[in-house]
Structure formats: structure tokens, C-alpha cells
DNA sequence: ATCCAATTTAGATTTAGTCTCAATTAAATG
DNA sequence: CATTTAATTGAGACTAAATCTAAATTGGAT
């Protein structure tokens, strides 16, 4: 819920832990993706920087994305095409996805029970979860019928 | 009348539903990926065909992968690099993944309870699940400690 | 304020994936 | 089972995505 700009955050602590520099470009990209609502890929992110007149090179975007992924600021998302898609984790109300293999419709769902058992699994394996991604693929109601 | 001795399967029924032809290449690729155990990408699949001396063009591999995905024969998998990775769904003992954001270790898990609630969700949304993919990202036991 | 290793930039290069069109083939039809 | 035709394939040209390189810049330690 909180997205403080100058306070330490998930990303700045991550950089510090790794002994990496907090450059202008890294901070800019962190703030940019934190504000992004929908899905994006490396290129659409680069283009939105250009619209901002932020002079950050394409290569820097590609080099920063793995850092944002590893720090859990963004995650890989439901990709329908060939490219990798990402979405911001910040302040997002969590949901998971049912994806129709036929019409590609995406239905969002949420289950407290599943989340509870997830936590149990993490405890069992001594794993500290940052985020998760749970998708079920199959056929939605209308495509099931159309199958005849 | 079918010229093949093969039984109908998920892929052949899919092709039939869509009015697509069951070509030599499609059958070959279906059988190939069904036998594959680990992860693969478009290129490693193409290379394994060349080792087989199967003369199937690169373009055909790229054109067939979406069909294998849509029919649920393969699914997109835990991709660590930039490329899309796939894995066969056939006859695989189902498991899900805990993925360490730091060392990229993958821990497999299985939970009957989670599967049960998944089924409930599907029922609620009138969704017929073909397969699912559930990943939790975070820090594994040893990376948690190393964080200091 | 200085210094140095890390990082960035711009563009060249490499690699991944798509497209085109002539040739081939599945399978529907008689 | 010969004919027909629309779908599919193969080969390679082409486009797009991602990486690399070397010179310039910068964070942050001293």
C-alpha cells in the first residue's frame, strides 16, 4: 500500500544487500514500474520512458528488469504471446488466474483457504514467500459448451 | 477413416475439433514432446529433431508449439532465462514449485488440500481445468540466512 | 574534492522468431 | 483409388528482440 520514494524499500534494500549502486536509472525504473497497473514487457517499458523524455537506454532497461524480478518488485505474468510479460507487485490486490485455453479469457479468483495452505507449505520447506503465481488452464463455461 | 493405428488423444481430438489436419510433422512433434521429461524450448526441440534426422523445419516447430499449448499437451514452465520454456503434461506426476529469487533453486511440492480447493474454485466458475501451474517465489532457507 | 569500480549510453552485433511463396500433402469427394 | 483443393510445410529471407562493446559517466567510499 505504501510506496515511499525516499524511504528504504524492497528494491533499495535489495541493491544494498548485493552491494549494487542506487543509480538514477534504477530508481527511476523502480518508481515507474511501481506505478504501472497493467502488464508490460521490456519494450513497452522502454517506450513509456521515451514518452517521459527520460533518457534511459534500452540496454539499461534490459539489465534492470532481472534486478526488479529478483527483488520481487515485479513478477513474470500471464503471457499470452511469445514475449515475457511482467507486472508490478506493489500495492496490488492479490489475485490468481483461470485461463481459457480456447478463447484466452482470463478469470481472476482469490481463495483464502489456498493462501493458508500455501503458507503451511512455505513453513514446511523453510521458504520465505515474496509473491506467488497460481494459474489454472482449461476451458471456460462457454467454450466447454461449444465443444459439443 | 483414420489411417493411423494410434488411439485418439488430447492432441488429435483437438486438431479434429478445430478442423486442422493431422500431418506427419504434427504427429511427430506430439509424440516427441510426450516423451520428453525435462524442460525444453523451441530451439532445443528443433535440435533434438535434427539429431533424430527428422527433417522438420524450424518454422513448423514454431507453428506447432501454440497448438500443443492450446491442447494442453505442454505448458509454459518455470522460465529462468529470457526464453519461453515448456514441459510436457503427459503422464507426469503432478507437482508445483517454490522458486528461490536469489539462487534460482526450485523446490517441488504437492498439496492435496490445495488441489481440493482448486477444484472448488473451478466448480464455482464453471471452469474445466486441464492443468495448472502454481509457483511461489521467495527466498529458500539458505538464502534467507545469508541475507544477514 | 578525488578516485575508482560500477554503471550507463549508443549503436553494432547476435540471436530468436516470423513471414513468404512455391511445393507438397491430408482428406473430402465421386 | 484417382481427382481435387485448401491446408500445411520447407527453405531461406526478413524482422524483431536481446545482448554486447568500448568509451563516457557516475555513485559513493575515502
Based on the structure, what is the oligomeric state of the protein chains? Answer: homodimer
Q: Helical element count of chain A?
A: 6
pLDDT averaged over residues of chain A? 85
Low-pLDDT stretches of chain A are: 1-5
The number of domains of chain A is 2
Helix percent band of chain A: 40-55%
CA-CA gap between termini of chain A: 46 Å
Rg of chain A computed from alpha carbons, rounded to a whole number of angstroms:
18 Å
Please name the fourth-level CATH homologous superfamily of the largest domain in chain A: Winged helix-like DNA-binding domain superfamily/Winged helix DNA-binding domain
What CATH calls the topology of the largest domain in chain A is Arc Repressor Mutant, subunit A
- CATH top level of the largest domain in chain A is Mainly Alpha
Topology pattern of chain A, helix = H, strand = E: HHHHEEEEHEH
Strand content of chain A: 15-25%
